[in-house]
């Protein structure tokens, strides 16, 4: 798959809350966590994370965790920038976006 197709799937440059929520969910699903498990990893209440994901408004603790632990940068979550992700992460997160659309 070429970069243009990956950017289309990731909705590159779409910073709407719907697009952010979609990418945030794909990142979580790529890691094989449900929302409760992911919230526990983040050390935040489930209701806090659920609200962040469903509203497309991730907190800094979410963005920080994804980058430090899984190399998923804030530019991907917020703007759909795929090209900055490591190749293996690109492939896995694009697959998660496609699978959970």
UniProtKB/TrEMBL annotation:
Matches recorded under InterPro entries: Cro/C1-type_HTH, Lambda_DNA-bd_dom_sf
HTH cro/C1-type domain residues: 24-51
Native organism: Gemmobacter nanjingensis
PROSITE patterns to which the protein is assigned, alphabetical: HTH_CROC1
Protein name (Swiss-Prot/TrEMBL): HTH cro/C1-type domain-containing protein
